[in-house]
Structures are given as structure tokens and as C-alpha cells.
Amino acid sequence: MVVLAALGLVAMIQEPIVIVPQPESLKRMEGKFVVDRSTVIVSGAGAEAKAKQLAEFLRPATGFELPIRERAEANAFDVALDAKLTQLGSEGYRLVVEPKRVILRAAEPAGLFYGIQTIRQLLPADVFSATQVRAEWAIPCVEIQDKPRFQWRGLMMDSCRYFMPLDFVKKTLDLLALHKMNVFHWHLTEDQGWRLEIKKYPKLTEVGAWRKHSLVGHYNENRGNPKYAAERHITVVPEIEMPGHAQAAIAAYPELGNTGRQLEVSTMWGVHTHVFNVEETTIKFLQDVLTEVLDIFPSKFIHIGGDECPKDEWKASPRAQARMKELGLKDEHELQSWFVKRMDTFLDQHGRRLIGWDEILEGGLAPGATVMSWRGTQGGIAAAQSGHDVVMSPTSHCYLDFYQSKAPGEPLAIGGFTPLDKVYGFEPVPKELSADRAKHILGAQGNVWTEYIPTPEKFEYMAFPRASALSEVVWTPATGKDLGRFMAGLPVHLKRLDHLRVNYRRLDGPAEAPFGEWKSGEVGETPVVREWPLPEIPGAGEYAVTFSYSGGDHRLDISWAEIVAEGKVVARDEHEGVTGGFDRANVYRFKVPGPLKGAVLRARVRADGGSDSNGGLTLHRL
Ligand code: ACM
Fold this sequence. Notes:
The chain is of the alpha/beta class.
């Protein structure tokens, strides 16, 4: 009895071990390993790059420059490849933490990398910050054996509707790596903007990356990203949309369209009727684009979109109709299928594989195609039944641009309702599939479309912690999933995200209650300078104020905003922002030099088209 009571006490005072995603097996042992200035990293042959990454991950918070050695007696991380560990696959690892040694083994470097992510999460949460002062950095003794359930563990970023800056793309890759996710699906072309520079067709970005309302940038730096991702064992899967969602490309090169008319890059969201024509020259154009895409992105899978391609223009175009006859096709669905098959053949000839949204099933699936099932799971089931590979990403569970709460105060979203527990509960393998067919389910992915996500802050708000939940869907064995355990541990994991300055959605709602508001009748068409008292600012740092429209017929335009204390402007952000309908640049950032009490937020605002506009202002520290 005494012994049991003592054991109970030990269990009570021990911090729970929270690793997201939950490993396949985890056994807690007695004792701890202490990392200090004298700790070394022992690297086996072939593990040097991973050993170096371990040192780099630990350095910012600890300040320790852990040396990498060939051997050491004690107080060492021992990182080595072990070809015998094949039962853990190419991404699995074994981690044994003993009081004098941390032994990490994997068959391949990816497994070591994931073991390192687990080591990071076994340390106190502030290991994710810049320099921290700590008496000791302790890792509890454990034995972990771990490997992913699925090979495709993805997140999609839409960089078309709103430009997402390069640093933010890198931060997102870092967050995916932390969650052991390995596919970054990058949506790069759209009606509203073409984001990838193509040397042969410069107008795609010179013209196609810009729209009249809401100025958006284009990426010249994309070419460096696959390497950054590869070091984190993430594959960047680029998406070049065809034959629909093509208006920006047609605006740049009208000969790609069906009408010959000069179009503009679209300023409206939704499904557009302007799609690529089916001329041989257009096929060649797009294959030239893909040739450059293949040069930039080493990914085996290349996404060609394929979704939401209205057939109106093909039906109305004598050229498209003639082409259909010439090719012996019976309808426009078969014409789309023919289009996609041309790309499938092309990618196959170049040693790559085509993936597309589930509409590519219509009119007949291309022989080598993999299907990304988004309109529910039926498309994925049909594709798997016919022997094609599938990535599950149904709107019901995987659309991270949908609302995550029905409570008031939630920022504007595209619609839908996908709360955290629903994402967590997603089962990627449909019951309809036999074990044999289930092998075609490569995994799942969350999609962050950005029509209503103009800033990195809001992207993070929508993506996390739902992407954390998704990481267990795709990594943890189905039998190891447990919503209660996940939710109980989540506050520990969110502390890590705090240290990483991720603007995730707090479990109790939007990050901050509004400190100010504007109401119908208060702001009209003529710009006014308004002031709102700010809450106390506790110390120097970077702060953001978000203007969020909540209702009414008129949006709010903001010309500038500043923080004023004792009559003096302390910090100012001058740029045009909009909130309402869709938000654009509606976050104002301020470098505040020290604590402030009794300060106000002053801004020049107008309501566009009338005075029926309502909304609130929130403050958060960056
Ligand atoms: C999609 O959401 N249109 C794939």
C-alpha cells in the first residue's frame, strides 16, 4: 500500500508527456536526462546532417553549442542510422531516453528527423523560444517506438487569393515539421493571381500576379523553397490549375482563352467561366509551364487542379466543339478528361505523377492519376475501387478555412463549420473499402483557402490547432487516437505554439475580446479620424490591431492607424486596409517601445457606400 501510494505521488507530480502527434508506443521510465553545456551529440555515419539539426534546434533557447562527436561515454545524444530497423519504415524511429544517454535510431534520415521532433517536445515548452534562462533542461526517461500511419500528411496553402510572404511560408514549413507532416501542397495559380514566375512566359506574373483591387505580390523566391522544405523532410507539391481557375493566365495571354477577349485578373471569388481553350498550342504552353515547374519542384506528385471547370465556354466555342468531334469525344466532360490525360502522359514521360481534385474522375480518369477527394469521400472511394491512389481532403473534415466555432466574435470565414473535434475525428479510410483497396488511401490533408484569410496571422488562426488535430489523424495509429487525451494535453502543446508565436485560435475563443467597436451610423463615407482607448500594454514589443467587420451593408476602409500616448504618437502603421465582404490588410502592426497605460488607438476610417457598418478592434501581441 505504501509503495502504491508513493508511486501514485510520483505520477501526480510528474508533468504529463504530451507529444503531438501521439507516438505509436510510449513507455515512461524512471529518471531524466539533463541537457547542459557539457552534453555532446554523437553522430553515426550518415546521420551527421540530422545531428547538426538537433544541435540547431536546441541552440536558440538553451544557448548551448552542443558539439558533434564520433563517440562519447556519457551525457550524450546518440544519433545513428540502423538499417535493421526496416519494420519502422522510412519515417519511423526508436527513441530511448536514459539518465546518461539519449539513443535515437532510424532506418533513414527522415526517421531521425521525426525522433528529433519528439525530443523537442519532451523538453520544456520554452525550448521553442529564443534564449531562455533555465537551471536545467531535462528530458524524462522514455522508450518510444513510432512510425506514421499514412505516407501523405499534408497541408495546402492557397497563396493566390492572398499573397503569403516567404518568411511565413518558411514558418509554416517549420510548423508542419514539428507536427511530423510531410506534404506542403502549394496552390500557386488562380483566377485571382498567378504566383509562380515562369521564365518562358513572363507575363504570367507581370500581368497575372496583379489585380486591380487588392494588390498582391508575386514570388521570385519560390525556387529556394523546396530545399528548405527538403531539409525538413517535407515535399512541396505545386499546384498549377487547369483547365479551370485560369483567368489570371488568360488575362496575361488572351490566346489561351476561348473568346479572344482581353480579360482582367479576377477581383471576385468563386467559380469562373473563363477556362483554358483546348488548342494544341495551349496544351504546349501548359506543358512548357510544367517543364519549368519540374525544374523547380522535385516532387514526384504534381497537382494540376482540375476542379470547378464550367463547360459554358467550350459549349459555346465552335473551335472547342470542332476539337471534340476531331478527337471523337462525346461531351465536354470527356474533353476535360482528354485535357487531363495529356498532362498525365506528359508528367509520366518525365518521371512524375499527376494528382488532381476529384472532378478529374468525370469523363474518365487518366491512367496514372491520383485523386484528391474534396467533395466528400465518394470520389476517393470510386478512385480507390478502380485501383487509383487517393488523398482524402473532404470539406466536411479537412477544410480549415471553414468556421471553427459558431460563437459570436469569430472572424469572418468562407462558411461551413469544422470544429477542432470534428477534424480530430476524421477517419481517412472509408469503411466501404476492402483492406486491399484501402491501401490506395495515401493519407489526408487540410486545406487553407485564403479568400477570407488576407494575413499570416489569420492563416495561423484558422490552421491551428486544427492542423495539430489533423497531424494525429495522419500519423497516429487509429487505435491510439483519443479525443479526451488529445484535448487534455492540448494546453501543453499550445504553450509550444505560444513560444513559436503562432496566432492559433484559443480554445476559449477568438484571441482577444474587442477593445473597441464601430456601429451603424457612426462612420460614414467621408473619412474621419477616430480614437478608441487601448487596454494596458504590459511591455515593449510588437503588437497588432485587427479591424474586424461584423455586419451591415458597408465595409470599413482604413487609411492608417497609430498608437497615441500622452498626446504623442508612439507607433504608426500607414497602409490601406479593408474589412468587410473580404478583409484585406486589416491588421496594423506597431513596435511599442515600453509599457503603456491610458493610450489610444487612432485611425482614419470611412465606411464605403454608406454608414451601415459594424465591427470591432482587437489587440494582440505578436
Ligand atoms: C476546391 O475546393 N475547389 C478544390
